[in-house]
């Protein structure tokens, strides 16, 4: 018996030692692997951009969760020379690996998805309701807290302007945004959404139902699920910089029955534009219409679309004695008839791409499509700046089929054939190259400096990206299964007809009033403020010759597939 016990004890000692040895080996192997991966990421970052070439990072992008801060703007695939183009055979234009500052596309996407996943998990952690019961509304919020109110996406409680900041929303930020636009109330929901308005329902919800913490301010409540934390911001008006920028829309023929066309009206002796705009703003209408001493408020509709303007002289007193014409002004109030959006309730059977070369207006097209259809668009990339400003499809996996279409800048047979159909958005390469260069060095809304334009990076950029502009279109024409070609310039000039084409291609039906609402909100949040004029021509004659060859190649390929050729303004410059 003693001998058997001794053998068992000896065996256990050996097993214990073996387990200890295996554990130590496992930990050492894990440490070595971690060091190796860390070194790889650092090497890739150092190959991407030298320290003195790193573009500035916008404030709104800080901490989005991407390893290399120089790649905070959404990653772009490396450009490839167009197939069949003579210019593409030049050794200098073999851009398979792209410019030297570009980081590996696959590495970027892996890092983005990994960091997105961790952030997504952290965002989904359940909130501790007990902790929110003790939350106090901070004293630095100048507005008066009114209470918690219910909110429904189909019938908004506050029907004025809408703002999103899914990372930095605070109570003060929402209050100031609404006060600047002359609204009385500011309401916050889901911790990141801000709504403005001038009227509230009589009944409030239970205070504890507003239990979402503000994304940009720990310890503060920003509404909840279908709940608004509402503040009265009238006290802020005196000190805030009001944005009462009433915009003159023009002179138009008055509809036959003004009272049927416009929901609200006012008759006032000595009526002024400011008086009418103030009245319509309080009534939460985006249009103020003046005919003599009569003021009308409403929306653009089929009966009053604002498409056929008249000579301004016809609205003057001497020419408008019969009151056939009226003056129209845009108030600071946002047209919210088309701002509600959601994910598809069932998975889409058709996988649709919204494809374009970078800088061709893809984000703007997504804004138009989302507001026209009421459904979110997805993205092949995870761009934190776009997500934070309301493009919620950015955080949805691009293959989920819960979005109406998916943004992509990819080209190549494999990447294209993944999609059943595609809207191919094409823009003048001169404008596209400049827009993408601005984005790379100054974000979605900024401008590259003159120093950037005059550096050696700009010629390298043009030589590389001009070929990619052409190859992108040629690849989609060659491998795309079902295409709708939209030219950016045509969309800008004839928005509603072209948007109708896109919506019909997506197999959706929308009302005319919704399309008019989209037209009224056409710019969105990612439009650069005007075209900054430069004191020099950024394109040399050599660059123009190169780009013009690519333009002719693409134009010929489009006509060969029975599509409309490129607009005349493209060729040649």
From TrEMBL:
Tell me the organism.
Answer: Pluvianellus socialis (Magellanic plover)
Gene it is expressed from: Wscd1
Designated name of the protein: WSCD1 protein
Q: Write the record's keywords in alphabetical order, separated by commas.
A: Repeat
Question: What protein family is recorded?
Answer: Belongs to the WSCD family.
Which PANTHER family does the protein's record reference? Answer: SIALATE:O-SULFOTRANSFERASE 1, WSCD FAMILY MEMBER CG9164
Q: Which domain of life is it from?
A: Eukaryota
Query: What residue spans carry the region label Disordered?
Result: 65-99
Q: Which Gene Ontology molecular function entries are recorded, alphabetically?
A: sulfotransferase activity
Q: Pfam families per the record? A: Sulfotransfer_1, WSC
Is Repeat set as a keyword in this record?
yes
Q: Where is the WSC domain?
A: 142-234, 245-338
């Amino acid at each position: 018996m003693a001998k058997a016990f001794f053998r068992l004890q000896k065996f256990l000692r050996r097993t214990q030692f073996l387990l200890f040895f295996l554990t130590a080996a496992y930990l050492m192997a894990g440490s070595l692997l971690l060091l190796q991966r860390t070194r790889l990421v650092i090497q890739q970052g150092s190959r991407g951009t030298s320290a003195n070439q790193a573009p500035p990072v916008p404030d709104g992008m800080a901490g989005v969760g991407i390893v290399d801060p120089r790649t905070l703007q959404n990653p772009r695939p490396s450009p490839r020379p167009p197939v069949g183009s003579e210019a593409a055979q030049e050794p200098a234009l073999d851009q398979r690996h792209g410019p030297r500052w570009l980081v590996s596309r696959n590495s970027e996407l892996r890092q983005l998805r990994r960091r997105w996943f961790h952030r997504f998990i952290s965002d989904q952690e359940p909130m501790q309701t007990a902790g929110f019961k003790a939350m106090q509304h901070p004293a630095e919020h100048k507005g008066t807290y009114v209470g918690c109110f219910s909110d429904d996406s189909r019938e908004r409680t506050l029907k004025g302007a809408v703002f999103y900041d899914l990372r930095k929303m605070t109570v003060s930020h929402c209050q100031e945004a609404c006060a600047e636009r002359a609204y009385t109330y500011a309401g916050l929901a889901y911790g990141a959404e801000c709504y403005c308005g001038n009227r509230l329902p009589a009944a409030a919800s239970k205070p504890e139902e507003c239990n979402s913490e503000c994304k940009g301010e720990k310890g503060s409540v920003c509404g909840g699920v279908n709940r608004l934390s509402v503040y009265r911001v009238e006290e802020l008006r005196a000190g805030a910089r009001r944005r009462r920028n009433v915009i003159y829309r023009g002179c138009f023929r008055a509809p036959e029955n003004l009272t049927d066309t416009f929901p609200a009206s006012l008759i006032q002796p000595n009526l002024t534009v400011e008086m009418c705009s103030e009245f319509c703003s309080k009534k939460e209408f985006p249009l103020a219409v003046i005919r003599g001493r009569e003021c009308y408020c409403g929306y653009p509709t089929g009966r009053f679309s604002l498409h056929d303007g008249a000579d301004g002289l016809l609205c003057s007193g001497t020419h408008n004695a019969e009151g056939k014409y009226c003056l129209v002004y845009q108030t600071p109030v946002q047209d919210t008839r088309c701002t509600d959006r959601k994910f598809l309730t069932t998975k889409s059977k058709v996988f649709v791409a919204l494809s374009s070369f970078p800088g061709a207006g893809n984000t703007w097209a997504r804004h138009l499509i989302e507001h026209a259809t009421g459904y979110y668009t997805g993205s092949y990339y995870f761009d934190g700046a776009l997500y934070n400003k309301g493009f919620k499809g950015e955080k949805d996996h691009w293959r989920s089929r819960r979005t109406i279409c998916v943004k992509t800048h990819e080209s190549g047979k494999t990447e294209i054939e993944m999609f059943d159909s595609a809207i191919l958005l094409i823009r003048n390469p001169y404008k596209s190259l400049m827009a993408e260069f601005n984005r790379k060095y100054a974000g979605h809304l900024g401008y590259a400096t003159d120093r950037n334009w005059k550096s050696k990076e700009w010629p390298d950029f043009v030589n590389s990206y001009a070929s990619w502009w052409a190859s992108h279109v040629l690849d989609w024409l060659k491998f795309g299964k079902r295409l709708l070609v939209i030219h950016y310039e045509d969309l800008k000039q004839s928005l509603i007809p072209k948007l109708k084409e896109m919506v019909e291609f997506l197999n959706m039906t929308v009302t005319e009033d919704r399309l008019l609402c989209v037209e009224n909100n056409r710019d969105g949040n990612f439009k650069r403020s005007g075209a900054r004029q430069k004191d020099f021509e950024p394109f040399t004659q050599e660059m123009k010759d190169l780009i013009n060859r690519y333009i002719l190649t693409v134009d010929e390929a489009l006509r060969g597939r029975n599509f409309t050729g490129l607009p005349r303004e493209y060729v040649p410059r």
